[in-house]
Amino acid sequence: RGVPRGEQPRRIRNVLEEVKMLDWAHQKVGRFSKGMKQRIQIAAALVHDPEVLILDEPSTGLDPRGMAEVRAIVREQRKHGRLIFMSSHILSEVTDVCDEVALIDRGKLLFYDTLANVTARFSTGSAQVDAVFVRPLDPAQVTGTIAHLPGVKEVELLDPKRVRLGSPRGRLEQAQVLEALVALRLGLVSFKESTGALEDIYMQQIARGD
After folding, report:
1. Is-contact 94 60, C-beta < 8 A?
2. Threshold 0.85, pTM exceeds
3. Vertex 166, ends 164 and 171: CA angle to 5°?
4. Which of 16, 54, 142, 158 could form a disulfide with 162 if both were Cys (CB 3.0 to 4.6 A apart)?
């Protein structure tokens, strides 16, 4: 509805390709997994080429693979210049895909700002940064080398390939920590603010209101 009949086949093919469902175009939806059905729902919303896309908890109930696929679609739509409103109880997801955030508790808006401003405004002490490596780290490398890098205030080994660093909040200071990590040649593949930061801020703010 709302799409000229002559345009419908092309538009349907395009949106199915965008959500990675083109190979299942002629299959019955009833046979799809929940993640596949979620992608079909997003495709249906994209058929009309909207400027604004509203997603209500798009990853709820999905397995890790399904969640990753939906997040990838959201990030791709951002590249197309769409304005996306997304509600989610999974705050790590918000950190991963959103530029701006509004936190609501029991119908009350706690704050609305860019994600960077929120973490800078409400977090205390050092910034929490997660560093991911391509191969497992020796614990001695963590406590004996990474922990003593300039700018690293604390370090926690989260799993064999991932550590959480306490570092200064300034971009220049964090860039220096990143440069030092790369120089160690330990196979660093990711360096970004911890997804737990927003969850901590949210819990702090609702505790103040209780």
Report:
1. no
2. no
3. 110
4. 158
Q: What's the pLDDT tens digit per position in 107-156?
A: 889 889 888 778 767 665 567 788 999 999 998 889 999 999 988 888 88
94 and 136 both lie in a single domain: no
Residue 138's CATH number: 3.30.70.1560
In a domain, 10, yes or no: yes
Residue located via tokens 């405004």: 121
Angle 130-134-135 from CA coordinates, rounded to 5°: 105
Distances (CA, A) of 162 to 110, 183, 187, 191: 32, 17, 11, 10
Average pLDDT, the chain: 85
Only one residue has tokens 């918000």, namely 94
Phi, psi of 154, deg, nearest 5: -160, 160
The two three-digit tokens of residue 154, written as one number = 């604390």
Interior angle at CA 159, CA 158 and CA 160, nearest 5: 135
The DSSP symbol for 158 reads E
The whole-angstrom separation of Cα 178 and Cα 180 is 5
Under a CB-based contact definition with an 8 Å cutoff, are residues 81 and 185 in contact?
no
**Residues 122 and 177: beta-carbon distance below 8 Å:** no
Domain count, the chain: 2
